[in-house]
Amino acid sequence: MCGAAMLGHMAGGGQAVVSFGDIITPRAAAYNPRTGDFLAARQVGGYNGCGDNMNGIVKTFGSITSRQVAKAPLRARRLLRWAYRLTGAQARFFPRRRFLRAREGMMAAATASVANAMRQTPGAAIVNAFLPCEILHAMDIRPMFPEGMAVYFTAAASEQPFVEAAERAGVPESYCSYHKVLIGAAVSGVLPAPDVVLHTTLACDANRLTFARLAEHYGVPRFCIDVPNRETPQTIIYVANQLREMAAFLQQHTGRRLDEDALQAAVARSQRTILRYREYLRLRADTSVPTDMTGEMLPLFSNHVLLGSQAAEQYAHGLVRDIQRLAAERKPTRILWMHTMPNWQAALNDLFHRHRDLELVGCDLAYDALVDIDPRRPYEAMAQRLLANTLNGPAERRIDATLQMARQLAAGGVIYYNHWGCKSTMGAAQLAKKKLEANGFPTLVLDGDGCDSGNVSDGQQVTRVQAFLEQLGA
Ligand code: SF4
Known about the structure:
The structure is a single chain. 51% of the residues lie in helices and 11% in strands. By secondary structure, the protein is of the alpha/beta class. It has two domains: 1-98, no CATH class; 99-472, 3-Layer(aba) Sandwich (Rossmann fold), CATH 3.40.50. The chain is globular. Mean pLDDT is 87; it is low at 1-50. Bound molecules: iron/sulfur cluster.
């Protein structure tokens, strides 16, 4: 799932990248030490201060990269990787001061993880967003996951050739575009081969099809963790045993040894990360933070595939540190988002930035498994987190969790993002709207596509969101 949604931005064709959404040419670039941003010589306003200029350059990069996909996929891969590395370096060495420091640190870590996934070297696994990755971190194996990869491709305006390649290879048009883009990147030869493919059955119907297809395409072994939809002592043992088998499978197929102490340390880091993130959410109830869609999607990395890494723990600590430095006051209109965020879509981002009294307070995919676990029993702990996931089981569970979070974060309304092709999300849309509204949270069901830019209509979406915000008084 969706984990979906994340970030990125990059450059190309001899142009230097700047921050998320800001790509400018070296000649035009100047670093502004006051704001921490690069500035284009001719800024034209809009989101992140670059507007049409930035969009034009991203499109140029996208069209250069897209042309390479069919004729020179390895060159396309190098271009994308180079752009991601530049973006990560920018977030790391020139963090923008308008955002929290922790946000910029996580941006660098998330971008590095995507750039690393584009390396054709041993020690990589394609995983789905819910797979517990502590075992991978303990074995120094790089996770590559569809939602992260797909959103980065879209942020580079490069996803269309992958969508087309997947459809040419027989993937239906109605299939989830995160998975479609990943399959397209694989069959076009841009995405390097992993050592193994790992996934769960949790939440996403597309998992079994996509990951089986990828394993078959690359000719690598696959391991699937079956997650029952209820948490009981028996199901915890059942899933924990599968995780043990997965650890053995990884050792067998990568030739790397798993140090059980390192695994326990990684799970302990996960638990500390979750505790800190919960503390951040508690503080956020009374405090507005300078943020954007990308910022609200970063916890999808830290609370999923990067959970158990030092980067994720540093991020959670940094969020608490940074929010404690802000004044305890909040903007009047707070929106909670459900499901993936189209953070590459400038028109929507711009809407949230244009309103001074409006802020996004989170995304339900960031708090889907903030449960207490016992790191001394790492396999049971990871199993428990999978089973307790708010997306596991009936749709009401996810809706109730959002209701609770909407109350905690003092949200004024909810946007339920109906990502194209996500049957479980689309199927629960009206149920969610009904329950949230019955409890006092106006809800907009917004149809869109989190990563296929060819499948969205900016105008329609902006009109609907604007009307909703007006209804909330923003
Ligand atoms: S089908 Fe839904 S849950 Fe699965 S990857 Fe797509 S958006 Fe995520």
